Amino acid sequence: MSIGFRVLQQPRKVAVEWVERYRTVPVANVSDSMNRMTAGGASLQPMHNKGVLVGPALTVKARPGDNLMLHHALDIAQPGDVIVVDAGGDLSNALIGEMMVAYAIKRGVAGIVINGAIRDAASIGAGDFPVFAAGITHRGPYKDGPGEVNVPIALGGMVIEPGDLMIGDEDGLLCVPFDQVGEVYDRAHAKHAAEQKQLEQIALGENDRTWVMKSLIQKGCAFS
């Protein structure tokens, strides 16, 4: 086996039913339900106009500035997959642009995450195909490798296994581990419902704010 230059099979992936359920839950609620301990890093921002990113991860570990393995990932991706690329956060060369996004859409890919740079930002920014990246540059990529497909990767300390659930919206990106999608969804759904109720109470002027003073007193805050 050629460590560092290999393509593995995707061992498992989250079911479509979970993809559809998570589509209606804000990423912030999911993050809170995971104790706010997981994030892909603030540098990974939505580059598209609008649209929620949800789907199982097809992971790519790429040499910074090189997109050979990303091209192969696009060729083998199944409809609904999210291609997630760990390119080390390097912004020297763009790994995708307008043409690769068009091909991804044609293939039925659900979105692309690049821990690196993109180009053709105006075209991507005008569209609704979900693209998250760390930056923009006009300089194109090399296509020499090495790299790996369907291996564990990490973005800003967030570990992503092939087939894990990737979600993203205007607040950023999050990975929900394969074995935790059910438990996390139940918590996130309940939190989202509670927040919607709280918004209704705020609109009516009925929200309870006594917890603020109670917390200050409990923590020993002095008042003069």
UniProtKB/TrEMBL annotation:
Its cofactor is Mg(2+); a divalent metal cation. The keyword Zinc does not apply. Pfam families: RraA-like. One of its GO terms (molecular function) is metal ion binding. Substrate binds at G97, E98, M99, M100, R119. InterPro entries: RraA/RraA-like (IPR005493), RraA/RraA-like_sf (IPR036704). Mg(2+) binds at D120. Keywords: Lyase, Magnesium, Metal-binding. It comes from the Bacteria. This is Putative 4-hydroxy-4-methyl-2-oxoglutarate aldolase. It comes from Pseudomonas trivialis.
